[in-house]
Design brief:
Aminodeoxychorismate lyase, Aminotransferase-like, D-amino Acid Aminotransferase, Chain A, domain 2, about 25% helix, alpha/beta, D-amino Acid Aminotransferase, Chain A, domain 1
C-alpha cells in the first residue's frame, strides 16, 4: 500500500488513566508494569509500528519515547496532580513533525477484573455493557484500518448506521455503549468501530486475525499474549442475533454484549450506502 501524505492525519491512541492501576499490575503480563496508565507500553509499541509503516521521520519516533512524561505533565497542568484520582480517558495524537497533544475527559470507574481479566468467562458475572450490531455494508481494509489515526471516515460511516434505539429498556440503554462490527469484502469481521471483538467458536475465544484488515488494539495484544484467545476468521454469516460477544479497548477494558438486529435501517438505505462505499475504492 502507498503511504499517505504525512500532513493529512495524525497517529492517535486513547489511554485510560486510573489510580487503581498504580499498585495493581497485571498478574498475567507482569511486563506491563505498575503505573496509572493502562497498558502504556503496548500503546507506545502500537504507535511505533504505525509511524514505521507510514515512514515518518526520526523526530516523531523521538517524541513518542517521551510519551510517559507528556501524560504526567498533562495531569499536572490540568489537574495539578500527576496521578489524578478520577479515572480519565487520555486521547493522544502524534504528528509527523513530532508534536504530541493530550486531551482528557472523565470516564466511568471499573473493576480491576475488567481491566485485567484472568478468564473471559469471569466477565459474564457483570451486566452487559454493550449493544452490538453488525454492519450491513463492507469496509475496505487500508492502512487507516490497520493503524489508529485521525482519519476516521470509514468508521464514522459505519457508526452512522447504529440504530437510535434497540430492544432494551431506556434504563438499560443509558448504561451501555453501542458498538458496530466492521465487515470486509470477504464477509469477515474486521473489528469493532471502537473496540476489539472476541467470539466463542469451537470451544475457544477467537479474535479476527490481522489479515482481516482491522486495528491491532492494545487490549487485543494483552488477550493474545495472556492466552485468553486466539486469532482466527469469524464470518458475518456465523454471527447470530442474541450471541454474546466480548469487546475491549484501551479505555474501558473488557466487557460484553449481545448481538442485536439492525431493525432501524431500511434496505434501500443499506444499498445506497454500500454503493457509495464501493465508489470510493
Amino acid at each position: 500500500m502507498e503511504c499517505p501524505i504525512q500532513d493529512n492525519f495524525e497517529i492517535t491512541t486513547s489511554i485510560r488513566s486510573d489510580e487503581l492501576l498504580v499498585d495493581n499490575p497485571s498478574s498475567l503480563l507482569p511486563r506491563l508494569g505498575k503505573g496509572p496508565f493502562y497498558m502504556l507500553c503496548l500503546h507506545q509499541e502500537r504507535m511505533l509500528t504505525a509511524l514505521s509503516t507510514f515512514k515518518w521521520p526520526k523526530v516523531a519516533r523521538d517524541a513518542l519515547s517521551n510519551l510517559h512524561k507528556d501524560l504526567v505533565d498533562h495531569l499536572k497542568q490540568r489537574y495539578d496532580d500527576p496521578c489524578y484520582g478520577v479515572p480519565l480517558k487520555l486521547r493522544v495524537t502524534l504528528s509527523s513533525s513530532g508534536n504530541i497533544d493530550v486531551f482528557s475527559i472523565p470516564t466511568p470507574g471499573v473493576t480491576l477484573g475488567t481491566l485485567f481479566p484472568l478468564d473471559f468467562d469471569d466477565l459474564f458475572t457483570h451486566l452487559p455493557t454493550f449493544g452490538v450490531f453488525v454492519s450491513p455494508i463492507t469496509t475496505t481494509p487500508s492502512l487507516f484500518t490497520s493503524h489508529k489515526t485521525t482519519n476516521r471516515a470509514q468508521y464514522d460511516q459505519v457508526r452512522s448506521l447504529i440504530p437510535a434505539t434497540s430492544n432494551h429498556s431506556n434504563e438499560q440503554r443509558s448504561t451501555r455503549f453501542a458498538e458496530i462490527l466492521l465487515i470486509n469484502r470477504n464477509a469477515e469481521i474486521m473489528e469493532g468501530s471502537i473496540t476489539t471483538p472476541y467470539f466463542f467458536r469451537a470451544g475457544e475465544w477467537i479474535t479476527p486475525r490481522a489479515q482481516c484488515g482491522g486495528n491491532l488494539g492494545t487490549t487485543r495484544r494483552y488477550a493474545l499474549d495472556a492466552g485468553l484467545c486466539k486469532e482466527g476468521i469469524v464470518t458475518r454469516e456465523s454471527v447470530q442475533t442474541g450471541e454474546r460477544v466480548i469487546l475491549s479497548n484501551g479505555v474501558r477494558g473488557f466487557g460484553w454484549g449481545h448481538v442485536e438486529a439492525l431493525v432501524q435501517i431500511r434496505e434501500n438505505e443499506m444499498i445506497k450506502t454500500d454503493k457509495a462505499s464501493q465508489a470510493k475504492r
